[in-house]
Amino acid sequence: MTRIVTVGAAQMGPVQRDHSRTDAVTRMLHLMREAASRRCDLVVFPELALTTFFPRWFVEDIRQADHWYEVQMPSPETAPLFDESARLGIGFCLGFAELTPDGHRFNTQVLVDKTGREIARYRKVHIPGHENHEPDRPFQHAERHYFQPSMDGFGVWNAFGGRVGMMICNDRRWPESYRVMGLQGVEMILCGYNTPIHYVPDPSQDILQGFHNALVMQSGAYQNGTWVVGVAKGGVEEGVDSLAQSMIVAPSGQIVAQALTTDDELITASCDLDWCGRYTGTLFDFDRYRRPEMYGIIASQRGVTHPDGE
Ligand code: ING
Fold first, then answer.
1. Which of 88, 170, 244, 257 yields a CA-CA distance of 20 to 30 A from 193?
2. Ligand 1 test: best mutation among 143, 195, 237, most atoms within 8 Å of CB?
């Protein structure tokens, strides 16, 4: 019996600073209803979907940024998503800034089943950008000031009839993210992102943002025989132009659906999870072909060391 998961990538346009959580949730409810009408099993929302991408500003006293974080999930503002999920029988994945009761700050995604119950929570492993204020930048990307990296790593959960994993934004650029989930048998990876077009450290990359976005998700999907769902919050948000181009990528690496706009837009695909086995059972049969005894430094070493010590 084929295992088909119909997934919706619910791309969002900008969430401006003065947009409330309720404004964002209202837009997401509209996308969720459209996904349900297209018979989606789950709908995936972007990274930090409830607010504007606040790390673009630097606030020295981080307590002044507390209002950007969720201290409970669901909260009164987000409960309508959980209620509608149960009413429509559709699961969802939602990115948000998490402030835990013991004061830890994470860039988090929550996975919710068709009854509106939380299955799992993933916290971003690879935190990009910078820790301190860099006033010369046209805008900050101070995620390393606002979020601490996950200590839980990448999980894979039985959900929607398959094995589902999560990653967030910068995670998608690191092959290790996909491989750690691939080694757990992942069949669909859900990934929200907020990616400014302008990359301050090297503006030559600006024109390549769309290419790099597709490159990493297509290669990660193919090299691990998994579906990948990438969902943008795009468009011009508080003056910063951010990449859209949400997409759904097959285990073959083929893009099966891609957003055409930089605004709220739902793209969907009926994903045959048994397509994964056509790669993981042949070319990428990890247990047959991988040589972990050759890969030791990938896990044991963080930065580059030259063999000749130079
Ligand atoms: N954003 C970025 C990402 O990896 C970044 C980091 C910023 C990349 C600007 C390129 C340009 O897509 C997040 N939120 O990780």
1. 88
2. 195
Ligand 1 pocket at CB < 6 A: 128, 141, 169-170, 173, 193-196, 199
pTM equals: 0.98
Residue 108, strand partner residues: 96, 123
169 is catalytic: yes
- Angstrom distance (rounded) from CA 43 to CA 283: 30
Contact 247, 257 (CB under 8 A): yes
Taking only the tens place, the pLDDT of each residue in 94-113 is 999 999 999 999 999 999 99
Q: Which domains are seen in the chain, by residue range?
A: 4-300 (3.60.110.10)
CA distance 303 to 178: 19
Could you give the CA distance from residue 97 to residue 250 in angstroms, rounded to a whole number?
Answer: 29
Structure tokens at 92: 């969802």
Mutate to test the pocket of ligand 1, among 141, 177, 211 (most ligand atoms within 8 A of CB): 141
Ligand 1 centre distance from Cα of residue 83 (Å) = 32
Can you give the length of the chain in residues? Answer: 310
Tell me how far apart the alpha carbons of residues 233 and 53 are, in angstroms, rounded to a whole number.
Answer: 9
* Buried-exposed string 118-156: b where 16+ CB fall within 10 A, e elsewhere: eebbbbbbbbebbeeeeeebebbbbbebbbeebeeebbb
111-146 pLDDT, tens digit per residue, is 999 999 999 999 999 999 999 999 999 999 999 999
Q: What is residue 92's three-state secondary structure?
A: strand
